[in-house]
Design brief:
10-stranded antiparallel β-sheet, 4-stranded antiparallel β-sheet, 27% strand
Length: 291
């Protein structure tokens, strides 16, 4: 058998950007686009959500539709002409930033910005919809949740549950080192600031990821809520006590999301992993929180 190698082949700019994206993200959780149309390069249908990513990322938003928490997210630094590659939508440019949007299997959306050199901006804006009667609340890990008004104190258990979330911000340089970064909520915009300088190792990648409440999350959250309501510390292990403190701090829906992340074998901090394992040791929660 003879194989022929095309030595003249070179990856396109979009393929190079996607290859870099898959180096930093969990490519296994990207859901394949089921279709596209004249407005959207990728329309991904999951069990609970429909995530549509536009061809024109500069002037149009990611559309996330579901029964519980629909939203629209603008795409920071995206171009006007996207390229669809295996369910991902890539916006390349001759400037200092390329962008990749990945619909995820759990009905969320991950936006990866690649800062190619020191001329890249330090701030990246994601516009989103804040439902009536809700506010954006920043947690101590830097993540942001949409909560009902009155739950602004991130150190206090919320009186109601969050409807949608931005995961904690992160940024890494070309050597895999963390780059200081943080979110600031300005009106209905999430601004991610990245603290790099001319001596940083480029490219630097940043990732504002969004997910919203789904039916499975709601079912799991209801079970967690019932457990917390009836919980008594007597006879409980130290791990369960620690897990209960976490639930009271971040709310039951965000806890349900952590359980989903754990179930899908994705990355969690050691503290979160131990807390989730403790909660899933409770039969009623294990039964209700199946993802």
């Amino acid at each position: 058998m003879r194989f022929t190698v095309d030595t003249a082949w070179k990856p396109t700019a979009a393929e190079r950007a996607l290859g870099l994206a898959n180096t930093y993200s969990d490519a296994a959780d990207v859901t394949a686009a089921t279709s596209s149309d004249s407005s959207y390069a990728a329309i991904a249908v999951t069990e609970d959500n429909v995530v549509s990513v536009p061809w024109d990322g500069r002037n149009n938003a990611i559309d996330i539709r579901n029964d519980l928490m629909p939203n629209k997210l603008t795409i920071p630094a995206a171009g006007a002409k996207g390229t669809q590659v295996g369910g991902n939508v890539v916006y390349t440019s001759s400037g200092s930033v390329d962008t990749v949007v990945q619909p995820t299997v759990d009905g969320g959306s991950r936006t990866l910005n690649f800062l190619k050199d020191g001329s890249a901006p330090h701030d990246y804006e994601t516009g989103f919809t804040i439902p009536a009667g809700m506010k954006a609340v920043t947690h101590d890990d830097g993540s942001v949740s949409l909560y009902a008004a009155g739950d602004e104190n991130a150190g206090k258990a919320p009186s109601s549950d969050a409807a949608g979330f931005f995961d904690a911000p992160w940024a890494k340089d070309a050597a895999g080192n963390d780059v200081p970064t943080a979110y600031q909520v300005v009106g209905d915009k999430l601004v991610q600031h990245v603290d790099f300088d001319a001596n940083s190792a480029f490219p630097i990648v940043i990732d504002p990821s969004w997910w919203s409440t789904t039916k499975k999350i709601a079912k799991c959250a209801l079970a967690v809520s019932g457990f917390i309501f009836t919980f008594t510390p007597a006879g409980s292990s130290k791990r369960v006590l620690t897990a209960v403190k976490l639930v009271k701090k971040i709310g039951v829906k965000k806890t349900a999301k952590l359980i989903q992340t754990y179930a899908k074998r994705r990355k969690l901090t050691s503290a979160h992993r131990k807390a989730v394992a403790a909660l899933l040791g409770i039969p009623a929660l294990k039964k209700a929180c199946k993802f």
